[in-house]
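Handoff note, outgoing to incoming analyst
You'll be picking up this chain. Sequence as last confirmed:
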Amino acid sequence: QVQLVESGGDLVQAGGSLRLSCAASGRTFSGYALGWFRQAPGKEREFVGVISWRPSITVYADSVKGRFTIARDNAKNTLYLQMNSLKPEDTAVYYCAAGGHGVASMNSREYEYWGQGTQVTVSS
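Most recent structure output, in case you need it:
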């Protein structure tokens, strides 16, 4: 079992930055792909980005490409999402997820472990 806990969500103004963290317990991230997803009020859950296990490849949604960066610290069992140039459209609950397949999938159904989410609100 892998337990995931997100943190770092906050209220920020447009143009600001936030760094989200996802800490794992139970087992290490070894072998897992790690993804970020988000869901805004009244909208479907959407893919944000993912980092695969090996080779370590990052894939981003077009809406965040160039602004968001995913990184993982395997020694600390922690996943990060650096968010820059935030827009009001980025307002959502952000979830991290782990998939034992290890590939850079954009499909949320391919991830078996999920955190409870952290709220990011960007004001205009």
